[in-house]
Design a protein that fits this description.
Layout (H helix, E strand, L loop, with lengths): L8 E5 L1 H4 L1 E10 L4 E9 L2 E2 L4 E5 L5 E6 L42 E2 L12 E2 L19 E2 L2 E2 L4 H4 L13 H6 L3 H14 L42 E3 L5 E3 L3 H13 L4 H19 L16 E6 L3 H15 L3 E5 L8 H10 L5 E3 L12 E5 L12 H13 L3 E4 L14 E5 L11 E5 L5 H6 L13 E3 L1 E2 L1
Parallel strand pairs: 13-14, 13-16, 14-15, 16-17, 17-18, 18-19
Antiparallel strand pairs: 1-2, 1-6, 2-3, 3-4, 3-5, 7-8, 9-10, 11-12, 11-21, 19-20
Main location: cytoplasm
Family: Belongs to the EDC3 family.
Subcellular location: Cytoplasm, P-body
């Protein structure tokens, strides 16, 4: 009977022009095929009129939101506006405040009223809600059969939702119930049980962050003095990591090189190793990868190499050969001598194959500042060279050129140096250099540890993964 639907809440879709109406069924006229809604809402907004009547021809879709079983009393939630859902959603315009929500599909329902036209019968789609638990059973289908309604499923259409859900959640009150001290204590107990780091006194705490060069597992304390020498020099240096590198005397330096040569580390091999390390340092000082790129082929750096007729000069020529191989414009200054060392002659022969420029007069050196000057004029033993005219002329040119100077294997501080350097590169172990030597660097020329032990030096390599490292005054 039509009277069975009085008091039920329905949603009527009248198409895109008229929109969607929701309200309580107040009257159903079978003869005129009309239905009236009390307390209507139009597209989620309460209508100004108390009642709206619809014809079956205007109804595109009708959905039942709440079955009141003939009760004509106004629902408890009539005063609140229904919430619209996105267009095309099968739930259309459902009222989320309605207590009749199911967690699973409710099935399909047709409004089967005798005498009604087919256009008035509209499908009732399913709706869902998250208010039910996962262990609740799927509600049984409920519908109209032969004009009689089956027994309502109280699980789905029972009492309304708990009124306490409408109240605001007390965040501060619930946060006060959280015992943070007890939770942190439980976490600490679990970490100690698993062997993890725990909170303790500042003396017992282990740093939670480490640098990229720090070892996390420190099985034993670090020994920073890993090199001891029988004859201490006048200075001590230290590396970036804090390792102590003592200076040695020139006499101990000569004994170390002699022992290395007896064991097969010949002068030629030392010259090659020194040239490679010095050229690597020079390339870094010239700009490194920022300077030596295919885009800078038109801006080759210029290096002036000042060499004397001794082993230090041969080391400089070896460095100049490697620099020339790396597209550096090298200008080698070496005065003409009647007789030179074999090592110098051999290095000159190799250098002449690189295309580098060799001059014997200071007048042929460039007048404009160059990118770098490598000073190899000084010698550890032949101090009389400083009185030679070519030496004084070359030193004066270097001091007036205003280019930075790198001294290669400079002598100890007891000897006077005519050219003030910005950097100095020492070999294997440093000598006690003067203040004019600038910042001191150390290069590894490949002397084995047992050779150090043979001359009374307890040695552990301070170089790590590098062949050239900076030294700081301790």
């Amino acid at each position: 009977m039509a009277s069975d639907w009085l008091g039920s809440l329905v949603s009527i879709n009248c198409g895109p022009t008229l929109g969607v109406y929701q309200g309580e069924v107040a009257f159903v006229d079978q003869s005129s095929q009309t239905i009236s809604l009390r307390h209507p809402f139009h597209n989620g907004i309460k209508c100004p009129v108390p009642e709206v009547t619809f014809s079956a021809m205007d109804i595109k879709e009708l959905k039942i939101l709440d079955i009141r079983n003939g009760s004509t009393s106004a629902p408890a939630h009539v005063g609140s506006a229904p919430v619209a859902v996105p267009k095309g959603d099968p739930r259309s315009m459902e009222n989320v405040n309605s207590p009749q929500h199911c967690s699973k599909s409710y099935g399909e329902r047709h409004l089967e009223v005798p005498g009604q036209s087919k256009g008035f019968r509209r499908r009732h789609n399913s709706w869902s809600s998250s208010s039910r638990g996962a262990n609740q059973a799927t509600p049984k289908k409920n519908g109209v059969k032969n004009g009689q309604m089956k027994h309502r499923d109280d699980e789905c259409f029972g009492d309304g939702m708990d009124e306490g859900l409408d109240t605001d959640f007390d965040f501060e009150g619930n946060l006060a119930l959280f015992d943070k001290a007890a939770v942190f204590s439980e976490i600490d107990t679990s970490e100690r049980r698993n062997g993890a780091r725990s909170r303790g006194t500042p003396q017992e705490q282990t740093p939670s962050r480490y640098r990229h060069d720090e070892n996390i597992l420190e099985a034993k304390p670090i020994v920073y003095r890993q090199i001891t020498v029988p004859q201490h020099g006048a200075k001590e240096y230290c590396t970036d990591s804090g390792l102590v590198v003592p200076s040695i005397t020139y006499e101990l330096h000569k004994r170390l090189l002699s022992a290395a040569e007896r064991h097969g580390l010949s002068l030629e091999r030392r010259l090659e190793m020194t040239g490679v390390c010095a050229s690597q340092m020079a390339l870094t000082l010239l700009g490194g990868p920022n300077r030596f790129t295919p885009k800078n082929l038109h801006q080759h750096p210029t290096v002036a190499l000042l060499c004397g007729p001794h082993v230090q000069g041969a080391q400089g020529i070896s460095c100049g050969r490697h620099l020339a191989n790396h597209e550096v414009e090298v200008i080698l200054f070496l005065p003409n001598f009647v007789k030179m060392l074999d090592s110098v002659t051999n290095e000159l022969t190799l250098f002449s194959k690189t295309g580098g420029k060799q001059v014997s007069s200071v007048k042929d050196l460039p007048d404009t500042p160059v990118d770098l000057i490598i000073n190899c004029l000084d010698c550890h033993e032949n101090t009389f060279l400083m009185d030679q005219p070519w030496y004084r002329a070359a030193a004066d040119w270097a001091n007036q050129n205003r280019a930075p100077v790198l001294s290669l294997d400079p002598p100890a501080s007891g000897q006077r140096q005519a050219v003030e350097a910005k950097w100095s590169l020492s070999l294997c172990l440093p000598l006690a250099l003067a203040e004019g030597a600038g910042r001191v660097y150390l290069c590894d020329i490949g002397i084995p540890r047992q050779v150090f032990q043979e001359v009374g030096i307890k040695y552990h390599s301070p170089f790590g993964c590098k062949f050239v490292i900076p030294l700081h005054s301790a």
